[in-house]
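Much of our argument rests on the idea that a fold can be written as discrete symbols. Part of our work consisted of pairing the sequence of a single chain with a tokenised description of its backbone. We regard such an encoding as a compact summary of how the chain folds. The amino acid sequence and the backbone structure tokens for this protein are reproduced below.
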Amino acid sequence: MYISSRERKIIELLVQVDGDIPVRDIAKTLDVSERTIHRDMKNVAEIVSNFDLSLSKQSGVGHRLIGTNQAKHDLKTAISTLSSSEFTSEERQAIILSTLLEAKEPTKLFTLANELDVSLATISNDLDQLETDMEAFNLQLIRKRGYGVEINGEEIKKRAALSQLITKYVEPFKFVALRNKENRSTLDSPSEMISRRLLESVDMKKLFVIQNVVEKARRELPHELADNSYIGLVVHLALAMERLQKGETISFDPDYLNQLSGTKEYEIASRIIHDLHLALMLDIPEDEIGYITMHLMGAKLQLSEHFFIEDSSMDMAVKATELIQFVSSHLEVDLTHQGSLLNDLVAHLRPTVYRLKQGMPIKNPMLDVIKDDYQELFDLIGQGVHTIFTDLKFPDAEIGYLVLHFAAALLNKKDIWINALVICSSGIGTAKMLASKLLQKFPEIKQVENKSMFDVPELDLNNYDMIVSTIPLSGMDGEYILTSPMLSDADIHRIKKMIRKRKLQTRAKALQTQSAGNVALEQNDFIHNLKATQAYAKIILELLELFAVYELPEKKSMEVLLHETCEKLEKTHVIQDKEQVIEKLVKREQQSGLGIPSTSIVFYHTRSAAVLKPVIQVYTLKTPLVITGMDQKDMVASTILLMLAPDNTSNEVLEILSFISNLFIQREESARVFETGNEGRIREFLTEQFQQFMKGKNLF
């Protein structure tokens, strides 16, 4: 609960007096109106109830505390621990900002000063700082004598500012634990007070409905949601529903909304809106679907690597590859073969670029630490995005997040001994970087596994020698180490101590179970590898059997050529409805260019229910065509690379096709092989690459 300085003073008066205190006496003592005191009494009653006390009210007489002397003593002790200046200037500004963003009309400075128990001059200074802060959100703080103060600007910008406040002051575990009323503390710290106040702007009943809808959507996504992305989406929806009911609506760029409409995330976002419409009986405009889609697209956990075949991220993959090559060349470290880095960057950059184009800034709470630890890398990536994204200006906060992805890749080093579990809600880059830091700084750690805080109840924690978390794990059985994402000296010391302890325990267990455990492990690994080898081998054989190179001699439009290619596939029973496949391919081309820059290849790819088998085929054009590349520049195409997959297919299929997609994006020499149009040479190349794929899986 939120406890203001004035409420604290009211409680102090009630504790000091044995009898009734008239409201007028309290108002006179605190130099406020009786109406203000009546309004505060509701929260005061809730506060004292946490100490087994009640507030008696008798008309014409006043208020008094009812309860034991010990309870009153406990309340007095708790109140006395609060400092005379409850809030820092930053915390005070957070309260002012939340008040102004929620207000439907101008707010008087006197009201703000009374609320926070500070002078008008202090409020004025706070507003000076907020005026600067609001410029980052393209919002304007209006102040007029006799009028008050208010924030003007687009609704989406106001939501962004309010969402950032909630993200900053509401801890993820507390947010999730709101269902459990018993988790509420009696008296909160200033930051917790702000947290409670901010969440008062959200109807708890709606929040639970939204959490259920989002939880359902999580299970339908082709990837997992990072913890902070899950919370960010729930916060966004909660604010959206509240503000929609107040008549506050947003708009979304219709052209970009059309581009998103063919993605899996858009389909799921539409279902979220549909479910919320039914559950809350609220008309929700289609523009909201766009913003939900952006949340989902920017929230991919890279547990799989099949985004290329799955959505329209190829154009961003080109930019991400250029950034990887830029960093690699300057550091003289080859990062171009790290597929997970490319995938992480694409998933991060796609919503980032849109956010920058729309003037929607973000805050990076770890920015100072990132700069301190990785200043050289920070400067280098800053140069890289300036060189590659010429039409955009990346602020330091965004560059900081990119640094985390590269830092995780650079620190990716495996060693031996202890298995660790990392639980983190700060973001995928942060979790991976923390895992890599553990591997780098502690040679005893053999393996690090990242898990979501939402996965904790389903985990068998006995499978891990050590648990490291960047968030408090209230109610969790077992020992864990709470650390910062950047690993402070104190964190390192505590981890070393835990490692020494675990070494002794692990060695004792190993002496007892080594023989039986090794046999069981070897058997399980063998069976698992055998099944995986069989699955991958079957897919690879099918792809090689269906692979072919065809020549298209006549000069025709690209759409006519697609009809011819799909007709061939329909006759060989690879697809069953060519028109459906053609429609998806054409729509994909309209969303953004498909030409691979610096090559003569146009890469058509999609997933469809009309596709019966995964296939890779090449079509050479005797008469080249001018098409749009993934960098939005015109280029000459003389080779069509066609890659299709069924809509509902296995992860193994998507993983293999994405492996091939990666080859074109990251390696120029791969494209040159396909540009030859020589079927024998291309087949030989594919066979070699599939062999490398299997070796990389330790299956061959």
In short: The longest helix spans residues 489-546. The mean pLDDT is 78.
